[in-house]
Amino acid sequence: MRRVRYHENGGPEVLRVEEADVPGPGAGELLLRTEAVGVTLPVVRKVREGGLPLPAGLGGEVAGRILAVGPDVTGFAPGDRVTGLCFGDAYADRSLLHSAMASPVPDGASATDAVALVRCGLVARGAYEAARPAEGESVLVTAAASGVGHLAVQIAGARGAGRVVAAVGSAAKADFVRSLGADEVVTYEELAGPAPLPFAPVDIVLDAVGGALLSPALAALAPGGRLVAYSSGGGTVDAYDLLVGAKSVIGFQMALIARHHPALMERWRLELWEEFAAGRLRPRVHAELPLTEAAEAHRIIESRVNLGKVVLRPV
């Protein structure tokens, strides 16, 4: 089989396409013929910054058809189409997916639809629900053109937000996020600038950026507002800023929902597919690239030019 690995940390240039033996599925595992792989910023950062023993494979959302099942697998069989989060060699034309992480791909949906919708959609939906939104409240979504952010804009609008403000890194993305239903668009420079905000304060911020943008995002909240942080970008806030505006910061991590509330995650997943089938939720794909162009996929993500999801097609 073909897979992509890296033997040293660095930029996209360290990714190598290799030949390897096809692995056999272990207990609870599914062997997939991988048809689509979702590329994410945390994985791109891990390649550059380190954290795993080398050489290392790359994880990510995968979708494909089951070729074989390991011992103790129930509910899945060879020939089924599934999607899920692979922690091993996701960048490969054959991948191992634990059955606990797998979910069916419905008829009428492609593998690309699956990797663009499910994991990103679960994060977007979960982050929005973590804010405990009330009908008609206003929402600011940072990284609004990203794989998660572009779905968060749609989910907020579809689930009753009175106003959705999209924050993006470049004004060139404004038309894209407006096409998703954003009522207003602001650039990071405008959000963090010394001038008054170009929009009225909001009740909820869904922040996928963190870092230097965290404080400006908090300042965009109206009194009593809630900021949901689901970024790997870090950042700090001043407790006094929370006190004087009676504001809250809520951390959200999808892995905790998966471990402790699997029934809730399954309900959200089914609702995502229902909204997709009804045309109310449309994942957008910036680029579909062959596995051999994994480095280019990482360059796109690092440059922040993507409008929606970046997907690799191994086969």
Question: Can you describe this structure?
Answer:
There is one protein chain. The chain is 30% helix and 29% strand. It has 315 residues and is of the alpha/beta class. The chain folds into two domains: 2-105 and 284-313, Medium-chain alcohol dehydrogenases, catalytic domain (Quinone Oxidoreductase, Chain A, domain 1); 120-254, NAD(P)-binding Rossmann-like Domain (Rossmann fold), CATH 3.40.50.720. The strands form three sheets. Strands 3, 5, 6, 7, 8, 15 and 16 form a seven-stranded mixed β-sheet that branches. Strand 10 (163-168), helix 4 (174-179) and strand 11 (184-187) form a beta-alpha-beta unit. The model has no long low-confidence stretch (mean pLDDT 93). GO terms for molecular function: mRNA 3'-UTR AU-rich region binding; NADPH binding; quinone reductase (NADPH) activity.
Give the SSE map.
Blueprint: E1 2-6, E2 15-19, E3 29-39, H1 41-49, E4 56-57, E5 60-69, E6 81-86, E7 94-98, E8 102-104, H2 111-130, E9 138-141, H3 149-158, E10 163-168, H4 174-179, E11 184-187, H5 188-192, E12 202-207, H6 214-219, E13 221-229, H7 239-245, E14 248-251, H8 254-260, H9 262-277, E15 285-290, H10 294-303, E16 309-313
Parallel strand pairs: 9-10, 9-12, 10-11, 12-13, 13-14, 15-16
Antiparallel strand pairs: 1-2, 1-4, 3-5, 3-7, 3-16, 5-6, 6-8
Helix pairs in contact: 2-3, 2-9
What keyword list fits this structure?
2 domains, Rossmann fold, alpha/beta, seven-stranded mixed sheet, 315 residues, Quinone Oxidoreductase, Chain A, domain 1
